[in-house]
Design brief:
The structure holds two protein chains of two kinds. By secondary structure, chain A is of the alpha/beta class. Chain A is built from 27 helices and 21 strands. Chain B is built from 21 helices and 22 strands. Classes of the chains: A alpha/beta, B alpha+beta.
Chain lengths: 662, 725
């Protein structure tokens, strides 16, 4: 492995905390700039450039491997010295295409090259699902590797990171580059080695967590001057040598929408074991108290925000109940806080849906992927409240040591690019926060997906019944079916239904983590029924089994409309890839999470009553209404993300006496 | 799960392990407001003040540079329970303290951040200056040492003896004004005359200088009594509506514990001003009316009393009385908090937000907060409106500019902020729809009220009452008056003579002519006998003489004048005419038909234009001084051409009317701008209460129009008038 230790200082001279997002008139100007970029038709430019690259490839086809490598050397030098010209870049991409064809047998076609060029130019390329994003990422990553300052290729999950790194390793090796891959269970030394590779694959969580850990390690030694001074003073400088990363230079993000948008709501935390505050007893007592209070009389649940509020009677009752307890129960605020927490644990958190109990511990189930997340805990005593509810040993809460929002983390990269199947809706946000323009790349072959109109039902039962009928009908034709659900609970429910109706199927949920990709990959076989949450198995292609295409390809059923149109499109995008046939349809009910959470209370009550007469109310009116709800949900989510960033900026502006978060 | 005040904060880890402490130089003082203890922290560098609650101070005081914030917070939690600040509140508090440079951390400060903060602060100041161009302050001088030198002698005035002296001066001033109110009010009309403006301004500057020194000395004096505090480090020029005036920064009064001391400091300026006003009144009363000294005294008196009471004495503007009120009520930061509280009430009760924090501290404050928020807003809008109107009248361009700036500041910006709040603020959460709905409804109601509901559209004009028919009675034949009919008697052509006079000259002449006539007749008889030709001549002579006699007889008869028309005889001078000799053509009086009166009103073009448009104008007639009487009438005729001579001097500016008159015209009858005359006939039977010559106010009511349309027309007319003029 080539030594890149000398670049350690780059981590230390990392740019000062990034500027807060523009405000006021600056924001207007910024938006206008984004709009002008969007209007200037860049797709054509990239496609034209890709055409040139394609035509250059002809010159390399007959060269021997050695000649090809020899051609690379001066090119690589120019990239390293930052002297690369437009021609150099075209040349480099052409060579890389040739290399890809020779090593992994995939020759990037024009659209893929255009996407790669867009990434190189610092854009988000919108490519339809199944267009070969893994290969696309390789080209700019290799160029970045030649530049020698590291390149992070960020994927949605660890499995994909490992798979992609392995798949493309041959390309990089041919180009004289090393590849590293960050796995969750790696020790620091191995991580350091992976980061020192020219190209590093990993998930956003792992890479951001390593960044935070490095920060914690540096402690107060922020910046190069401080480290140099400390080193001169012979003080704690060895810490710096333990840093695993070498600066955030360039990142290529696969599934950009998931990383930049979906996961941007919750900041990443590094927490350590906190001091035991000897409050375990209080949690147990709170759980007992919560069991004694009853809904309606003592507390109310707001259906929209799912907030729990004590009524006056409930307060009095609580007061009476806690009088003999003393201690933390004396203060009214703390008392109510603890009780409400216990109530939240009791009402909103269900075993095997939100969490699983294993070995006397509460393990969180990821809402989206359905996976268990062992190191995650709920904050501020909620985890303890759930432990108390389940009667487990109360583990002291962990304390946050460092935190970073993904928005801020990605804004620190000097160069950022992304790919996604469904990102057009989030255009404005990507530009506003990350300064990433979106470029839409056309599909290589025309799309043959048939999206059938949504079917809308008043009740959930009616919806499930219709879903079952639909599955049975399609199953009879022998076409494979993929059913996407919103939650693990819904998956399990549907699985039960299918079992009772004797329909053989495969279920993708928390317990089948290891086989996830296999199940998804096999979902295209004749007669296969697969039930999965909408997020499960992302990034894996569903290849159609023999004879399936003739019968109409994969049929996708969405059992609800999700909180963003993007997610619907992702699910639908699983069928009809690369010119295959396929169809998709969504089944929606007025009792779904979306209507429950975002529908205005009055209107939904009215409509619900009115629509109760019939079970199925599929009509253009209701479809529009559901879409409006979806748009509302998107807006709310976007506002929440903006708030995360704003809160960060506020702290930076006001907490000058505390060390900077970044 | 969301609580009103959640105990924990996500960001706690960032501060938990720090060990900051308050700067040693921070001045801490205890104060009580409405029985609650608060702590005032004074920044030693820029004398800014921070008020922290008891529990927050408890927390801050425990920070000693060794304990970590987390330790201290736990201590507070154990000690104060619910009252202890939550993690979020601690972070907020620390941020505020740090922002005010009151906190000393254990980290090397981030120099770049420090500079950035300084730049932001400087920029904020510039911005606030531009945002509030009417109240710009420019510090010039540190008067602390000057005040120190003089505070001992001057401070003696802040005592019981001083109070007596003050009362005595005030009494003397009032005494000398006694009985001179008329002179006072006649002078008041000329105060805003251009030639008086420099004097007025000089008076303002002098008075305000003493006013500010009053604050300064009071502050120093009570600071000396309290043993510390009371520094006055800033004096300079503030530009109030672009008028440079002195100011002094006595904000260190905040530090004093006795609220009465603070009140006296706030009132100090006004006390001094009133004393000056009283002294000026004495001076004014004892100097001759035309001297410069008199004029200066008058101006000083006016400024020191009226402006002092109207501005400084008005608790709804943020001047002295506001601070007095604030100390009296013990509600610090009344203005801002009253608005916050009203906002809270709206959020809580109108929008149903359950998680907003009540900004009031205790029951007793609430009423005051609501009252103050409403009253101060109304009062400020009114005063600003008045200032703008006056300025627009005097200096049109500046006034318009001012109105534009004020409307941006008071209407456009708050509205924009409000809309942004409704659209984006996270606090609203699920109540957003309700908030938007109720706000939209409020705007809709306002719009309907202003834009759709038609209100009576009224305008006013002044006029004088005059009879429709009247005859001026002139002396037709010179003579000595013997008898005059009593004024006010109803008379007519058949009635008794209006005036009876004798003319001995005429009588003699008549006798002489009679004699001549007889002689001629005798001569004719004689001639008839002698020669016929001569008879012819004689006949002609006699005829001529007879005619002459007839004329004299007529003249004699007209010595007893009768009224030419039916009406009332009005001769104000009737009694004085007795036995006087009056020449022919001299005016004696008027016979007017008092049952048939009309009003001749003077109206500007704007008013007339509206009256011509509408043919169903209702007219109400009001008589100044008789608010109980309101008569109906109708427009008889509008005399079209622009007139310049007023029908009565009573309508002109100089005689108390509302029409501006040409200054160069001594009679006070020539109007400055051409006007129209409107003839209005009172409805039947109502004319009895009117008297000719009376001034009346006519109120014309045209078809109702919406307020919006009325306001828009007024604005257009204002601008049109200005640009043509």
């Amino acid at each position: 492995m080539e030594s890149v230790i000398g670049t350690r200082w780059r981590m230390l001279v990392q740019r000062p905390p990034c500027e807060p997002p523009p405000q006021g008139l600056n924001a207007v100007w910024h938006q206008a700039a984004g709009l002008s970029r969007r209007l200037a038709h860049r797709t054509c430019a990239f496609l034209d450039q890709a055409e040139k690259v394609v035509s250059r490839q002809a010159a390399f086809r007959h060269l021997t491997d050695r000649r090809l490598r020899r051609l690379m050397t001066p090119l690589r030098l120019r990239f390293q010295l930052r002297r690369d010209s437009q021609t150099d870049r075209e040349m480099a991409f052409a060579i890389l295409c040739e290399v890809a064809a020779r090593t992994v047998g995939l020759r990037p076609y024009r659209e893929q090259i255009a996407a790669a060029l867009a990434l190189e130019a610092g854009c988000v390329a919108e490519m339809a699902t199944g267009e070969g994003k893994t290969l696309v990422a390789t080209l700019p990553a290799a160029v970045a590797g030649w530049r020698g300052r590291g390149c992070h290729v960020i994927t949605a999950n660890d499995y994909l990171a490992g798979r992609d790194a392995e798949l493309m390793a041959a390309v990089y090796r041919f180009c004289g580059l090393t590849v590293g891959c960050i796995r969750p269970d790696m020790p620091p030394a191995a991580r350091k080695q992976a980061y020192n590779a020219h190209v590093t694959y990993g998930t956003n969580k792992e890479i951001a967590a390593d960044f935070l850990r490095d920060r914690l390690l540096k402690g107060h030694l922020q910046g190069l001057p401080a480290v140099l001074l400390a080193k001169m003073a012979g003080d704690r400088a060895d810490r710096v040598d333990q840093l695993v990363q070498r600066g955030l230079e360039c990142a290529i993000v696969d599934e950009a929408d998931a990383v930049f948008i979906d996961e941007a709501v919750t900041p990443l935390l590094i927490s350590g074991q906190g001091a035991n505050e000897a409050q375990s007893e209080a949690y147990v007592q709170a759980a007992q108290l919560a069991r004694q209070l009853d809904a309606h009389a003592d507390f109310r649940i707001d259906s929209a925000s799912s907030d729990i509020q004590l009524t006056r009677k409930g307060r009095e009752r609580l007061d009476a109940l806690t009088r003999p307890l003393g201690g933390v129960w004396r203060g009214r605020r703390r008392r109510e806080e603890l009780t409400l927490q216990a109530l939240t644990a009791r009402i909103h958190f269900q075993r095997n849906q939100h969490y699983v109990v294993q070995d006397d511990r509460v393990l969180i189930v990821d809402e989206f992927t359905g996976r268990l997340v062992p190191d995650r805990t709920w904050r501020h005593g909620l985890h303890q409240a759930i432990e108390a509810k389940e009667g487990l040993t109360i583990h002291p809460p962990k304390e946050t040591q460092a935190r970073i929002s993904f928005q801020r983390f990605f804004r620190r990269y000097r160069k950022l690019g992304g790919m996604s199947g469904t990102v057009a809706e989030a255009r404005a946000e990507l530009w506003g926060i990350y300064r990433l323009p979106v470029v839409t790349i056309p599909t290589h072959r025309p799309c043959r997906r048939i999206i059938e109109a949504d079917r809308i039902f008043t009740t959930e039962t009616a919806k499930w019944r219709a879903v079952l009928t639909a599955i049975t009908t399609v199953h009879r034709t022998g076409r494979p079916i993929l059913v996407g659900t919103g939650s693990i609970r819904a998956s399990a429910h549907l699985s039960d239904l299918l079992t009772t109706h004797n329909l053989p199927h495969r279920l993708l949920n928390a317990e089948h983590q290891a086989e996830e990709a296999d199940i998804i990959a096999a979902a295209g076989q004749m007669g296969q029924i697969t039930v999965a949450t909408n997020m499960a198995g992302r990034g894996t292609d569903i290849r159609l089994g023999p004879g399936v295409a003739d019968r109409g390809g994969l049929h996708v059923i969405a059992t609800e409309r999700f909180e963003a149109r993007r997610i619907d499109r992702q699910l639908f995008g699983r069928c009809a890839r690369q010119g295959d046939p396929g169809s998709a349809q969504a089944f929606v009910s007025l009792e779904d999470e979306l209507s429950r959470k975002f529908g205005s209370r009055f209107a939904s009550r009215l409509l619900y009553r009115w629509g109760r007469q019939r079970e199925e109310i599929s009509s253009a009116f209701w479809r529009r209404r559901i879409e409006a709800l979806q748009r509302r949900a998107e807006n709310i989510a976007q506002r929440a993300r903006r708030e995360v960033l704003r809160a960060d900026s506020w702290f930076d502006a006001h907490l000058g006496f505390a060390p900077h978060e970044l | 799960m969301r609580m009103e005040r959640p105990t924990f904060s996500e960001s706690w880890y960032r501060v938990a392990d720090l060990t900051p402490r308050l700067l040693g130089a921070v001045n801490v003082r205890r104060q009580h407001f409405r029985g609650v203890r608060w702590y005032i922290l004074e920044s030693p560098f820029d004398s800014r003040f921070f008020r922290v609650s008891q529990s927050a101070y408890h927390f801050v005081a425990l920070l000693d540079g060794h304990r970590t914030i987390h330790t201290v917070w736990r201590l507070c939690m154990d000690h104060c329970g619910d009252a202890a600040p939550t993690q979020n509140e601690v972070i907020q508090l620390l941020c505020q303290l740090y922002g005010a440079n009151l906190l000393q951390g254990n980290l090397a400060p981030d120099a770049a951040a420090l500079f950035k903060r300084h730049r932001q602060r400087a920029w904020r100041e510039v911005r606030s200056t531009f945002g509030n161009l009417f109240f710009v302050r420019m510090p010039l001088w540190d008067p602390d040492r000057f005040l120190d030198r003089w505070v001992v002698p001057v401070g003696k005035l802040f005592s019981v003896g001083g109070l007596f002296l003050w009362v005595a001066i005030l009494a003397a001033g009032l005494w000398s004004l006694g009985g001179r109110t008329e002179a006072l009010s006649t002078r008041a009309a000329g105060v805003l005359d251009p030639e008086n403006l420099p004097l007025l301004y000089a008076a303002i500057v002098i008075v305000k200088l003493f006013h500010e020194l009053g604050h300064g000395f009071a502050c120093k004096h009570f600071g000396r009594i309290a043993g510390s505090g009371g520094e006055v480090h800033q004096m300079g020029v503030s530009f109030l509506f672009f008028t440079p005036l002195p100011y002094v920064d006595a904000s260190s009064a905040w530090n004093l514990q006795d609220k009465w001391h603070r009140i006296v400091i706030s009132a100090g300026g006004m006390l001094v001003e009133l004393a000056i006003a009283a002294l000026a009144a004495v001076l004014w009363a004892h100097t001759t009316a035309d001297g410069t000294l008199n004029a200066i005294a008058y101006n000083i008196m006016l400024i020191a009393s009226v402006s002092s009471l109207a501005f400084n004495g008005n608790p709804f503007l943020r001047y002295d009385a506001y601070y007095i009120l604030l100390d009296l009520l013990e509600i610090p930061n009344l203005d801002a908090r009253s608005k916050l509280y009203v906002g809270y009430l709206v959020k809580r009760h109108l929008w149903g937000m359950t998680k907003v924090l009540d900004p009031s501290h205790g029951e007793g404050e609430r009423g005051w907060l609501v009252f103050y928020a409403i009253a101060s807003t109304l009062c400020r809008v009114l005063i600003l409106f008045a200032i703008v109107v006056v300025l627009m009248d005097m200096f049109f361009s500046i006034g318009t500019l001012l109105a534009g700036m004020l409307s941006i500041r008071w209407v456009v910006l708050p509205l924009g902020r409000f809309i942004r709040y409704l659209a984006t603020d996270r606090e609203l959460g699920h109540q957003r729809q309700r908030a938007i709905g109720s706000s939209a409804l409020a705007f809709l109601i306002a719009f309907v009220a202003l834009g759709l509901i038609r209100m009576p559209d009224r305008c006013r004009a002044e006029g004088v009452v005059e009879p429709c028919q009247y005859a001026v009675v002139h002396m037709q034949t010179a003579g000595f008056v013997e008898d005059v009919l009593a004024s006010g008697t109803r008379t007519g052509p058949q009635g008794p003579p209006l005036i009876t006079a004798t003319s001995p000259e005429l009588e003699t002449k008549a006798k002489r002519l009679q004699a001549e006539y007889r002689r001629l007749q005798i001569n004719r008889q004689a001639a008839q006998t002698r020669e016929a030709a001569a008879t012819q001549i004689m006949n002609e002579k006699i005829a001529a003489l007879a005619e002459q006699i007839q004329r004299v007889q007529n003249e004699l008869a007209s010595l007893a004048l009768r009224s030419p028309i039916e009406g009332t005889w009005v001769a104000p001078d009737a009694d004085r005419l007795m036995a006087l000799h009056l020449d022919q053509g001299e005016k004696i009086g008027v016979v007017a038909d008092l049952d048939d009166l009309r009003i001749r009103a003077v109206a500007s073009q704007e008013v007339v234009a509206r009256l011509i448009e509408d043919d169903r104008v209702q007219v109400a007639i009001k008589i100044p001084g008789r608010p109980d009487i309101e008569l109906a009438g109708r427009i008889d005729h509008i005399i079209p051409a622009g007139q310049e001579r007023l029908p009565s001097a009573a309508l002109g500016y100089s005689a108390g009317g509302s029409t501006r008159i040409d200054i160069e015209d001594p009679s006070g009858l020539r109007a400055a701008e051409p006007f129209f005359e409107i003839l209005v006939v009172p409805s039947q039977g109502e004319a009895l209460t009117l008297r000719p010559g009376q001034t009346t106010v006519l109120r014309f009511e045209t078809a109702p129009r919406t307020m919006l349309a009325q306001g828009w027309r007024g604005l257009l007319q204002l601008f049109q008038g200005r640009f043509q003029g």
